[in-house]
Amino acid sequence: MEKMSDFFEKVKHLYRYFRTLLHHFFRGLMSMIFVVFPMNQFWSELCYFTTLSSLGFLALKFSRPSVLLPSHDHLPKNIDLFFTSLSAATASSMSTLEMEVFSNTQLFVLIVITFVTGEVFTSFLELHFSKSAKSDSSTFKYYSNNNNRITDQLGIVINREAGEEEEEEEEGLLKFKSIQMLAVLVGCYLLFVHVAGAAIISVYLNLVPSARNVLKKKGLNQQIFTIFTAVSTFANCGFLPTNENMMAFRTNSGLQLILIPLILTGNTLYPLCLRFTILALEKITGKEEFRYMLKNSRELGYRHLIPGNTMGCVYLGITALGYVLVQLILFCSLEWNSEAVVDGMSGYEKAVGSLFQVVSSRYLPAYTSFVPIIYAENEIKKKRSDFWEQILFTQLGYITIFVILVCITEAESMKTDPLNFSVFAIVFEVVSAYGNVGFSIGYSCERRLNSDGECRDAWYGLAGKWSYGGKFVLMVVMLFGRLKKFNARGGRAWKLF
């Protein structure tokens, strides 16, 4: 018993140490960003993602790559390493390198980048460092220290009634406590989903020999694969340590069914899960803070806690699942008998694989709902009257500009290799990068018109064959897509009717 007690004490001290270390690191980083870019969240987030991408690039560059693939007799290019780091930071999973090139150390670097730049984690940081929490804290201290005295607009000190002052003080304190508790809740949600997801994946790999043998044949570390898969799936990044991604596990339907909830709980269904968690905790504990979160979600300033009643989140869930169902029906109707896609798979494996495919492609912008979500009146009444602003500052306008830029940088390849470098392939790549989805048509040596005998098919996207200029443009697209919520209409839910 004493040994167990000592062990738990050591674990507790270790947890406190890492929590303090993580807190000071991100507090210093965010403080530096807010000092450089005060009062502008767009520049703050842009600096955050580019800084972490640069740090990830340096870590990848100075770590030794894997020696498991003798076909790679040279080190990866710097632009490809930075492209991979930025792709992980923006949850795009666009690839210009085969994943099995990376060593365990480099895979761990990608795990860290993916985790700290995930949507839920970054929203947790925003909540933790929110100015609303600081202002409420200072307001509460102001009222406590000034008793019944306030100052009007002319600077004249006047008295106010004790009951009114106490009511505002209690409301400010309750809001401050609610923000603090919400931050703790989001942190616990992050920890629970990752630990539970990694544990279930680990159990599956230990129980199913066919999935475990895939890792053994490739020489991949099972623990690294488990953690990498859980973190990447929850962050909706899409990277996996295998070259073929989930194609290596196309017949392992159990693993796909495990990953589907991880994808949804970290993306489109996160607001629904968060609200129902708060509802459950409010029923169990009866704490006033949880009741305040449900009734005053807009005042808390946390965008994933959607304003309104619970039915708004239910409509969001119905919309997300409705999109998945429509995609599933279309995908199955088109590809069910395709030999190139589902050859050798049973009906059950086809159904689960199709479901996994369509769920992986879902990235609803700003929580699309078939019932409009009510936002602040000053946001609703904003109308853009300038014609050119209407044309340019739309998602379609951005995508068109990026496609034209890529066509300019890849003009020579489009002439010499028109089948691989078609306009449709470029549009598909740009749209996928802007949506942070990560899908790619890929590159095939068999489709080349003039084969020189040196071409080798590789397990990465079409962007891997692009020029430096094309890759740079696509990096801008990925970063721009990650910050699409700041564009003209990206910050509000879309109205479908």
The gist of it:
The protein has about 500 residues and is mainly α. Helix content is about 65%, strand content about 0%. A hairpin with a 5-residue loop joins β1 and β2 (about 155-160).
List keywords for this structure.
disordered C terminus, two-stranded antiparallel ribbon, 497 residues, 64% helix, mainly alpha
Can you walk me through this structure?
The protein is mostly helical. It has helices at residues 2-36, 41-61, 78-89, 104-116, 119-128, 131-146, 162-207, 209-218, 222-234, 253-265, 270-285, 288-295, 297-300, 310-335, 339-342, 347-360, 377-380, 387-392, 395-409, 411-416, 423-434, 468-482; strands spanning 149-151, 157-159. The chain has a two-stranded antiparallel ribbon. Strand 1 (149-151) and strand 2 form a beta hairpin. Helix 3 (78-89) runs parallel beside helix 22 (468-482) and helix 19 (395-409) packs across helix 21 (423-434). The longest helix is centred in the middle third of the chain and has 46 residues, at 162-207. It is globular. Mean pLDDT is 77; it is low at 34-39, 68-72, 131-158, 368-386 and 490-497.
User: N- to C-terminal separation?
Assistant: 64 Å
What average pLDDT do the residues reach? 77
Approximately how much helix is present in the residues?
55-70%
The beta-strand count equals: 2
Which residue ranges are poorly predicted, with pLDDT under 50 across at least 5 consecutive positions?
34-39, 68-72, 131-158, 368-386, 490-497
Main sheet characteristics: 2 strands, antiparallel
Shape: globular
User: What's the helix-strand series?
Assistant: HHHHHHEEHHHHHHHHHHHHHHHH
Strand order within the widest sheet? Answer: 1-2
Structural class: mainly alpha
Q: How many DSSP H or I helices?
A: 22
Strand content: under 5%
Question: What's the multimeric state?
Answer: single chain
- Rg is 25 Å
